[in-house]
Amino acid sequence: MHPRRSLGTTQEVVRLPGAETSDEGAAEGGSEFDIVVIGGGPGGYAASLYAGAAGLSVAVVEKEKVGGTCLHRGCIPAKEFLETAAVFRAVAGAKEFGVQASQPTVEFAVSQDRKQKVVDQLHRGLQGLMKQRKNQVFAGTGQLLGGHVVEVTAENGSTTRITGRNVILAAGSVPRTIPGFDVDGKYVMTSDEVLSLTALPGSAAVIGGGAIGCEFASMMADLGVQVTVLEALPKLLPGCDQDIADVVVRSFKKRGITVRAGVPVHGHEPGESGTTVRFGEDEELVVDTVIVSVGRRPLSDELVSEDSGVTVDERGFVVVDEWMKTSAEGVYAVGDLVATPQLAHVGFAEAVLVIKQILGEPVFPVNYDAVPWGIYCHPEVAFVGITEQDAKAAGIDIVVKKDPFGGNSRARILGETEGVVKVICAKTADGRAGPLLGVHMVGPWVTEQLGQAYLAVNWEATPDEIAPFIQPHPTLSETFGETVIALTGRGLHVG
Ligand code: NAI
Question: Is 210 in the pocket of ligand 1 (CB under 6 A)?
């Protein structure tokens, strides 16, 4: 049964044409599979692991390494470097705890090596798992032709054709670029280049104050880089609740990051010492490096031939319905390739949804309005559900309660009191706090605390229902618990 109470029925359980498992099981060395997956990133490998666990024969076509952007050029390496920044902050602040340590310096090449070790270990683990599930990996670039045929072109130009009773497109995304900022790996970088650096620049302009921009700005500033964030929209972290974004901006400013919102960028000219970035109304800034983090675009170039019957929209996203079905029968698309939140864990969920359908099991669509978000800058951000601003704009009556981490004993012990938990509930007819609609957190380890808030929002639980559940003391999670207790009408520590 699906946890969301308000949802009606599941999709009608129909065994899709071609849903039957091959009689031979995994077609070892054969060219016909139950499923051919193009792309071995989080969406693709989740589909292949989950299908393999159900005994389906799976081919995965991957042009680089399985693990995709998330493992090799995204989530994992970025968080590894953010951990270097956290260690740096801890050592720099050690004296306050009576621990004598000299002021730290960073050798970024060592951090780069450590990052690579972590990535390589996870990569080997994933390869092992895929082997165990009898997923067959084809090295090369896949293109979907008509009739569920996938042509795989290897690096040396040789081609192989394989067929899937079902095909899953999971080719992912690449960084978007902007005119006037050609990526050269020296003056202009995207996340791809930043994550392979062995030395940090002295100064950087980060263009785009979204998730990637804020993570890089935070990491680099903590490691001594002079950072300026240039964001085109009026605020950083668009999509985040304003109270949460405000805490991040305050912390950034306190740590020496220059934050400029509402400024368009016009181009840059490399000179003798760095490059001059032109932005706003006739403003200039000289920096060693520009980091472009203005979003990611789907990697659908030449992914599907016209004969495939798959529709791609003008932005390059593969068009799917809520069941991840493309316009071609038996062809699905998941992950960053489709216009849903570009998050690895959303790709996982979409992949599982597809495999369950292929198996003929009951399924529910992903509720994109209530997926968990985590941004790992310092302080961390984590949220699920509607923001106060969006609720008000939509005319929804809400009850809001906030509890800052300043009152949390564990946060005091950690010396990390910056931040707040904000819970948004629907207002009941008698003015009480009804089901939780959104939970927004900023502060220490909030990405690890979001789990119970995510469950509460998706279960449409009310404060009365969840307030009696105990939070261990002393923990950071008490701040969420206290906020919920206060929403019942009488708080313990929170008014
Ligand atoms: P984003 O869409 O989150 O943010 C891009 C930012 O760039 C926006 O604030 C936008 O207004 C701004 N922008 C666009 N054009 C601009 C211009 N010409 N000048 C100045 N600013 C401009 O994209 P981002 O940060 O690149 O991340 C890409 C994807 O990866 C996102 O969907 C994000 O959710 C995901 N991601 C998730 C992470 C996480 O969950 N921890 C971490 C990193 C990325």
Answer: yes
